[in-house]
Design a protein that fits this description.
The complex is a heterodimer of chains A (379) and B (250). In chain A, 52% of the residues lie in helices and 14% in strands. Chain A is built from 11 helices and 9 strands. Chain A has a 4-stranded antiparallel β-sheet with strand order 2-3-7-6, with helices on one face. Chain A has a 3-stranded mixed β-sheet with strand order 1-4-5. In chain A, a hairpin with a 3-residue loop joins β2 and β3 (147-158). In chain A, α7 (231-267) runs antiparallel to α8 (279-307), α8 packs antiparallel against α9 and α9 (313-338) packs antiparallel against α10 (349-359). Chain B is an alpha/beta fold and 250 residues long. Chain B has a single domain, classed as HUPs (Rossmann fold). Chain B contains 6 helices and 13 strands. In chain B, the strands form 3 sheets. Chain B has a 9-stranded mixed β-sheet with strand order 11-10-9-12-8-1-6-7-13, sandwiched between helices. In chain B, a hairpin with a 2-residue loop joins β9 (139-150) and β10. In chain B, α2 (71-80) packs across α5 (190-196) and α3 packs parallel to α4 (128-136). Chain B is globular, with a radius of gyration of 21 Å. The chains are: A alpha+beta (379), B alpha/beta (250). The interface between A and B is medium-sized, with 21 and 16 residues.
């Protein structure tokens, strides 16, 4: 067993840290308050290759392993989870899905510009009445011979406005249930697609989230991913990997809140000494550090399994559930350590607490992860 | 046109500095090493010049005096965009030693522009660049704040009292550079990081003919910064007294 990172992995972690501190930190609170998307910074992130970092270089990606991706996600999420969620959707859902299940023609046309960061992708699964129960897709993709006709509404879509390429799950054969679902690659500028207003969220307010409406949208047959009816399986397989990204994001949110709390505990004085010298605070810091170390090890193990081409769905569910849950606990404690200052925006921890909450909900709630884990145990 | 950038490695500013061996030596335990910030900016500017459309810059080489454990720092320079690297296999001892090692190696090579940082963030000696130029018998310009290629011309800026001096320079020359040469250091792109592994890093033996001229007697860490003292608005007099008599700032 070797816990040492490679030279490249360390360099990627440092590059992500430098990017987040230099480009994102200075206005992260302001963008959060205004729900403002960091389009210019996303462009820089793309130019550095972070949006296609795991894609094979033969499809113009960076060819990095999943461990490097976890390290980069953690560093960016310490500062700005609204940006890291975009990175996660691009890397683990859209690019990975296309690279693993797309045809060569689809990869040439859609994956390459995504991997180069010239275009951004979005993953359209959730619906107003289909969240955790993703089998209940009401969006339809009716087979019209040489094309599908798509109608319906998708909810909570990250990157909905900034993306050019959508991966859309839709029901083609309702009688077959989830085995009748297809995944289609849809150009966002196809006639019949409209966006709802930017969602006014509790956290990750500057991420680009909208509902997307499809009204008689024609999608060429060759844009279907995999065989007829493969769509639901595609979504589930892709989300297995996506969970590693969101686990790393939750880890970063927790670690960011922890680092701020540790610094604060060394500076803030009460009752004649730095508050870190009081056991009430020291023990909180100790508990936080243990949880973060556990969370990081789970994330890296899930990533390592994926890199070793071993089954990783069980471990990625564990990582996602644990990291999200401890992110909520740790950010709440971080606010507590900061006292009144934790409840105002200047010290960042109240924002991190709001961001942490979403990691327990999206890409499979903590409860859904427990279903995945327990089913694997009881199988 | 070939550019050589001399890089040294220094402790990251967040590293805790301690000394050992009767305070004569830095304790390297747990130190995170980085490229000296001025050197990193020099390299960034060299890369920017090479990337300019129609650029006359053919190659950027980085050179470093250090032992094998400094190779991650050199790889970062390659990931940023240097084409190749040279490591002179020696423990840097003082400015004269480093400049002499560099001079012995560079003398037989052909570079149009040599860049060094104004100083290194650890020893602040500001000496290597000047000593190197002297030993190479090469023109040198100190404290350069801009380097531009305009057609056949090479223009450099220097800060002078009350303004900026612009010089047109004939290669080969050495410039020690400072703030202004580039805005921010280049963050290595994913592709650069992957390519860094396959770029040439040549290790050259150090010469035994050089002896350092400096003996370090003792190092002392400055006292920790004291906590902030607050004076109520109505006590301006007390504040002035403290600034004058305690801090001795006014």
């Amino acid at each position: 067993m070797n816990f040492e990172l490679t030279e490249e992995q360390k360099m990627i972690r440092q590059a992500a840290k430098d990017f987040a501190e230099r480009e994102l930190l200075h206005d992260v609170n302001e963008r959060d308050a205004k729900s403002e998307f960091a389009g210019d910074r996303v462009k820089k992130l793309a130019e550095l290759g972070f949006l296609g970092m795991m894609t094979d270089p033969k499809y113009d990606g960076g060819g990095m392993d999943t461990i490097s991706y976890v390290l980069a996600m953690e560093e960016i999420s310490k500062i700005d989870a609204s940006v890291s969620v975009l990175m996660s959707v691009c890397n683990s859902l859209v690019n990975w899905g296309l690279e693993t299940y797309g045809t060569e023609e689809q990869k040439e046309k859609y994956l390459k510009p995504l991997a180069r960061g010239e275009k951004i992708g979005a993953f359209l699964l959730s619906e107003p009445e289909a969240g955790s129960d993703a089998t209940r897709q009401r969006t339809t993709a009716i087979d019209k011979g040489n094309h599908y006709l798509v109608n319906g509404t998708k909810n909570w879509i990250t990157n909905a406005n900034c993306a050019s390429t959508y991966l859309v799950m839709a029901q083609t054969h309702a009688e077959k249930g989830h085995k009748g679902i297809n995944t289609l690659i849809v150009d966002k500028d196809t006639p019949g697609i409209t966006l709802g207003p930017h969602e006014d969220k509790m956290g990750m307010r500057s991420s680009d989230t909208h509902s997307v409406m499809f009204s008689d949208v024609k999608v060429p047959k060759e844009n279907r991913i995999g065989e007829e009816g493969f769509g639901f399986k595609f979504a589930m397989q892709t989300l297995d990997g996506g969970r590693i990204g969101i686990a790393a994001q939750a880890l970063g949110i927790a670690a960011g809140a922890f680092e701020r709390s540790l610094n604060y505990a060394k500076e803030r004085k009460a009752f004649g000494t730095e508050i870190g010298n009081h056991q009430a605070i020291a023990f909180k810091l100790s508990d936080m550090a243990v949880k973060i170390e556990n969370a990081r090890n789970l994330c890296l193990k899930a990533a390592w399994l994926k890199d070793q081409k071993q089954p990783y769905g069980y471990m990625s569910a564990m990582a996602k559930q644990y990291c999200a849950d401890i992110a909520m606990e740790i950010t709440t404690e971080a606010v507590q350590i900061h006292g009144g200052y934790g409840y105002v925006k200047e010290y960042h921890v109240e924002r991190l607490m709001r961001e942490a909450k979403l990691t327990q909900i999206y890409e499979g709630t903590s409860e859904i992860q427990k279903i995945v884990i327990s089913r694997a145990l009881l199988k | 046109m070939k550019i050589l950038v001399c890089i040294s490695e220094v402790p990251d500013t967040t590293s805790k500095i301690k000394h050992i061996n009767d305070n004569k030596e830095l304790d390297k335990t747990g130190i995170q090493w980085i490229i000296n910030p001025w050197d990193e900016l020099s390299l960034t500017r060299a890369i920017e010049l090479k990337e300019t459309p129609g650029s006359k810059v053919e190659s950027i080489t980085v050179v470093h005096v250090g032992l094998q454990d400094s190779e991650p720092t050199i790889r970062k320079a390659l990931a940023m965009g240097a084409d190749n690297a040279i490591r002179i296999d020696a423990q840097p001892q003082d400015a004269y030693y480093v400049a002499s090692q560099l001079a012995k190696t560079i003398a037989s090579m052909d570079f149009d522009i040599i860049l060094t940082g104004l100083d290194s963030a650890d020893f602040n000696g500001s000496s290597v660049g000047g000593m190197l130029a002297q030993q190479l018998d090469m023109a040198s310009i100190s404290a350069v704040t801009a380097l531009n290629l305009e057609g056949e011309k090479i223009l450099v800026n220097r800060d002078v009292s009350g303004g900026t001096q612009t010089l047109e320079v004939q290669p080969p020359f050495l410039a020690t550079v400072q703030k202004g040469i580039a805005i921010d250091p280049r963050i290595p792109a994913m592709r650069g990081i992957m390519m860094a592994r396959s770029k040439p890093l040549e290790v050259l033996e150090a010469t035994n003919e050089v002896t350092p001229l400096t003996e370090y007697v003792s190092y002392e860490v400055p006292p920790p910064r004291e906590a902030c003292r607050k004076f109520p608005e109505e006590n301006a007099k007390e504040l002035a007294h403290a600034l004058h008599n305690e801090a001795k700032l006014i």
